[in-house]
Amino acid sequence: MSRPTNLSLGRWFSYRGGTGYLLWALHRATGVGVLLFLALHIVDIFLLGFGPELFNELLFLYKAPWARVGEVFLLFGVTFHALNGLRIIVQDFSPRLWAHQRRLVVLEIVVFVIIFLPAAWIMITAFLGNE
Amino acid sequence: MRVTFKVYRYQPEVREDPYYDSFSFDAEPTDRVLDGLNHIKWHLDGTLALRRSCQHGICGSDALRINGVNRLACKVLIRDVGSKITVEPLMGCEVIKDLVVDMDPFFGHYRAVLPYFMNEEAPPDRERIQSVEEREAFDDTTKCILCAACTTSCPSRWANPGFLGPAAIVQAHRFIFDSRDRGAADRLSILGERSGVWRCRTIYNCTRACPKEIQITKAIGEVKRRIVDDRS
Lengths: 131, 232
What we know:
- The structure holds two protein chains of two kinds.
- Helices cover 80% and strands 0% of the residues of chain A.
- Chain A is mainly α.
- The radius of gyration of chain A is 20 Å and the shape is extended.
- Chain B is an alpha+beta fold.
- Chain B has nine helices and seven strands; from the N terminus they run ββαββαβββααααααα.
- Classes of the chains: A mainly alpha, B alpha+beta.
- At the A-B interface, α1, α2 and α5 of A face α8 and α9 of B.
């Protein structure tokens, strides 16, 4: 019988790491989300090869209310993933910045808010205006 | 104060699955978590298995997951973790019995980074001189006691048991940046492989878990930088 490793999904979530652990988890989650959207996008572009009718019929997917809300989540995912990735690259190749992790995270959040909030506002108002 | 210890138990000769036992008793707020575990073993349940040796934060044998985070049981006071204390073995290691885990893979990774002085040059008449600045380059990583608190707090290690882990990289750093050593190229070659430093995602769990307060994420970053600089 194999020995237990005290490792399960629940234990992953219950480890009390710091800000870096939280951001890493969010980075992974947004990465998977963006990847799923990319897969869907590749499939719909692929269908274009079977003629414009089929492609146009599939567009209902992106016009549905849940898909419009999903676009805001997509924006969140792409923006966060990109900015967090840039922060990690900067920290990885500038070890002297290790002590300034908190400041870099604050900077990341500020830039994220500046990009995400106005864009999300434009998307939501456009969606509600079309209803 | 009244304390309640919730302790992870795995006794394969008695029960197949792991479970938790609770023990309540009176303790001083200034007692260490290790004192509580000793009290359980000596007075409440002698079958509890745990590792401890020096009991003063030097040998590193009593690293455990205490209230959800890796710490040395002999360095944590009960007043700092509260009256309800959950004690579990280190994550990602095979549990042999209760709080005792198999450390062989951990020490295997440690040995893989050639953690010893390498220099084939003839020794000088008296000693290999090193300036204060040269010593400072690796001063921090000499403090490692190989307790595994860092390596077993690393999500990359949980997902990829083949990842060398923070402790092995810290040990390699100690020699790579030693001006007297000549084995840096060999070590950097090992650390530059898929199971080396590039598995690190700069999460900082290791730095937070280190009982000796080694700046582990910084040390790993310095090794990454060195690999890139040497290649370019």
